[in-house]
Specification:
Layout lengths: L4 E2 L6 E2 L5 H9 L5 E11 L12 E6 L7 H7 L7 E6 L13 E5 L12 E3 L5 E7 L3 E5 L9 E12 H4 L1 E6 L3 H9 L4 E9 L8 H5 L6 E8 L6 H11 L7 E2 L2 E2 L6 E4 L2 H18 L7 E4 L4 E2 L7 H4 L17
Parallel strand pairs: 16-17
Antiparallel strand pairs: 1-2, 3-4, 3-10, 5-10, 6-9, 7-8, 8-9, 11-13, 11-16, 12-13, 12-18, 14-15
Length: 331
Amino acid sequence: MNPRWEGGPGCVFQASGWGTKERRRCLSMVAVGDVAGVEYSLRTEDGSPFETRFDQGRVKLVVGGGGFAPFLHNAVLKMEPGEEKEVTVPPKDAFGEYDPELTATLGMDSAPGDISVGTVLQLWTGQKATVTEMSGESFKIDWNPDLAGTSLVMDVKVLEAAKAESVLKTATFAGGCFWGLELAFQRAKGVVSTKAGYAQGVVKNPTYSEVCSGKTGHTEAVQVLYDPSETKYADLLTIFFGRHDPTQVNGQGNDKGTQYRAGVYFHDEQQKAVAEKFFADEISARRLKKLATELEEVREFYDAEDEHQQYLQKGGQDARKEATETIRCYG
């Protein structure tokens, strides 16, 4: 008879060869897909703390589910509730090595008003660049991340962990380009994880270029995992309706096509009932017969490619809870 094997990812053991203590420890380790409550802080190697564009302190995350920074997910993996440790994060795993290609020297005739060394400028991409040098006829800008090339030290403690499906609920929305909508939900209280993807189509495993062709039937969407003890589905609907025009057919703003159509895609009868009331109130308030925004049961959701996940956070926009900086959707 083949022996029975148990345990989560990275935690596999032969049942007959381990004692009860080892078995319990293994099964309590944080695994990919778990929701973990952690407390962590970051500092440079010389001990200086610094701000990030994502939250520090006490946070919740779905391990391996995006958001925050990959090094936090990697550190928490296989830890146990109550365990704490210090982790050194090399530049390549933190904010990247310094890249001299992310600099430019420009003529003073292109300067946006009065500038000096240290002035922060916003590029057309939405990224921020710092003026690092000036001469009589030119100035140099640098849009490397502030901590590019810097090693970090992270103190992290796992406070609690559970299987995500036992704690969190799922909601799915489409509202034009998924980059901006995802960042809006990243900032929302009670939202633990977000991912960009493709919903309500007829082609399996579509690519971004296929969806953009308008031939797969999908719309760009955001799937949200939220903690119902901290936020309500109606709160998510309020955020969603504040981020899109429910009267625009097959598009949002300058993004036009069926792949940018808006929709609320409910996962259960409770969400359906809340959404139907929300739609009815919107229709009444706007004095319309109906909204262009779809209201349907969610069909299969496909994750978008990695480069689209938390895209605006990666570009330097503020993903901290309740941040108020204007969301700029660029690409």
